[in-house]
């Protein structure tokens, strides 16, 4: 399997296989939403679109990044998600990096969204698909986010060796600028940031499912894909 690592601007419009990585925090939040029973996640390109979708569909929830915004139910915090009932719900998600990266490669033949908590299961999907080339989209910091690159490289390593050690990759993510910003934000009491967010983003292979996105009724929709692989 050949791999290429790129940021959102350099991503081909329709790669055969794309893995979009956002560790802190979009796709950690998405994975936790599925773990807590959400049915599906619809990606929105703008906050206005997200709120319009929510208003047209009673019962849908809306998540966004940054500080809390009126009308949204969650500000992209995996720890704060624990106090929200998402069982059986559809979630609309809009973030600056993760969902934007997924929408940039919406026409990929196989589109996976990943973070450390679903890294092993994502690797299992790739192992079974046996693609010739995989494009990893590093979404944070204009394609330079160390935590996203570390996660992408760990997934690629897990495809080659199922017993690959996540430790060195997690340590790189732990030392990343994004982890530092979130830790500092929690210390300063920033709204939308929880002190446990970074730790929850740095749990490798926590869930036995990957996350695959495809177009449904004009929207890009993310759903869990159970791989049957044991969680860590």
Describe the secondary structure blueprint for this structure.
Elements: E1 2-6, E2 17-21, H1 26-35, E3 40-43, H2 47-56, E4 61-64, E5 90-94, H3 98-104, E6 110-114, H4 119-129, E7 133-138, H5 146-160, H6 167-174, H7 177-188, H8 197-201, E8 209-216, E9 219-226
Parallel strand pairs: 1-7, 2-6, 2-7, 3-5, 4-5
Antiparallel strand pairs: 3-9, 6-8, 8-9
Characterise this structure.
With about 230 residues, the protein is α/β, with parallel strands linked by helices. The protein contains 8 helices and 9 strands. A hairpin with a 2-residue loop joins strand 8 and strand 9. Helix 4 crosses helix 5 (about 145-160) and helix 5 (about 145-160) runs antiparallel to helix 6 (about 165-175). It is globular.
Concise account of the structure shown:
The chain is an alpha/beta fold and 232 residues long. It has helices spanning 26-35, 47-56, 98-104, 119-129, 146-160, 167-174, 177-188, 197-201; strands spanning 2-6, 17-21, 40-43, 61-64, 90-94, 110-114, 133-138, 209-216, 219-226. It has 8 helices and 9 strands.
Structural descriptors:
about 230 residues; alpha/beta; 9-stranded mixed β-sheet; 9 strands; about 35% helix; globular
The helical percent reads 25-40%
Q: State the end-to-end distance.
A: 25 Å
Q: How many DSSP helices?
A: 8
What oligomeric assembly is this protein in?
single chain
Low-confidence stretches: none
Could you give the order of the helices and strands?
EEHEHEEHEHEHHHHEE
The biggest sheet amounts to: 9 strands, mixed
Question: Tally of extended strands?
Answer: 9
